[in-house]
């Protein structure tokens, strides 16, 4: 059964932890001795949000719109990419109702930054920050996250049509 005017978007991303890079997650610069490897600023959380936004609009994924082979995206702020994704969702006639995100990181501790991440995402998406939820968890030392080799993020969101459905 299809419910007109409601779409779900889901996004997931992962980046390797490396030396000599800033660690930016959710638009927050986190003091840490390692950063995330990537073509842009490698903001793993915002990349997951971008994929969820694009998915809700039925517009593919972040790699389709911002390929890492294109030098114009080299070092770009992922918040800028999110602004573009948001505009694409709006052009498709949808707005975000709410979102739930998870950051998977053994290190560093993410909890002190969650509210600022929520506020950053909400600001770019022009929505109330209480509609954006960011959670953080470790993987109990299991897998690449648990071995402190990388950080992953996931986002699920609900998008609703900006036009009224008339029966």
TrEMBL record:
Top EC class for this record: lyase
InterPro entries reported in the protein's UniProt record: MECDP_synthase (IPR003526), MECDP_synthase_CS (IPR020555), MECDP_synthase_sf (IPR036571)
EC identifiers of the protein: 4.6.1.12
Protein residues bound to 4-CDP-2-C-methyl-D-erythritol 2-phosphate: 13-15, 39-40, 61-63, 66-70, 137-140, 144, 147
Functional note: Involved in the biosynthesis of isopentenyl diphosphate (IPP) and dimethylallyl diphosphate (DMAPP), two major building blocks of isoprenoid compounds. Catalyzes the conversion of 4-diphosphocytidyl-2-C-methyl-D-erythritol 2-phosphate (CDP-ME2P) to 2-C-methyl-D-erythritol 2,4-cyclodiphosphate (ME-CPP) with a corresponding release of cytidine 5-monophosphate (CMP).
HAMAP family: IspF
PANTHER family for the chain: 2-C-METHYL-D-ERYTHRITOL 2,4-CYCLODIPHOSPHATE SYNTHASE, CHLOROPLASTIC
Family stated for the protein in its record: Belongs to the IspF family.
Protein name, as recorded: 2-C-methyl-D-erythritol 2,4-cyclodiphosphate synthase
Species for this entry: Desulfobacula toluolica (strain DSM 7467 / Tol2)
Lineage, opening ranks: Bacteria, Pseudomonadati, Thermodesulfobacteriota, Desulfobacteria, Desulfobacterales
């Amino acid at each position: 059964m299809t419910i007109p005017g409601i779409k779900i978007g889901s996004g997931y991303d992962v980046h390797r932890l490396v030396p000599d890079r800033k660690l930016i997650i959710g638009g927050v610069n986190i003091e840490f001795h390692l950063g995330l490897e990537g073509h842009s600023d490698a903001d793993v959380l915002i990349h997951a949000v971008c994929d969820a936004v694009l998915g809700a609009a039925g517009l593919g994924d972040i790699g389709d719109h911002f390929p890492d082979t294109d030098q114009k995206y080299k070092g770009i702020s992922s918040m800028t990419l999110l602004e573009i994704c948001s505009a694409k969702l709006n052009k498709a006639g949808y707005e975000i109702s709410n979102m739930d995100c998870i950051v998977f990181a053994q290190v560093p501790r993410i909890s002190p930054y969650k509210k600022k991440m929520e506020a950053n995402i909400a600001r770019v998406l022009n929505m109330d920050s209480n509609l954006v939820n960011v959670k953080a968890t470790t993987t109990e030392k299991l897998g690449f996250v648990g071995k402190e080799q990388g950080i992953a993020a996931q986002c699920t969101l609900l998008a609703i049509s900006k036009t009224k459905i008339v029966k």
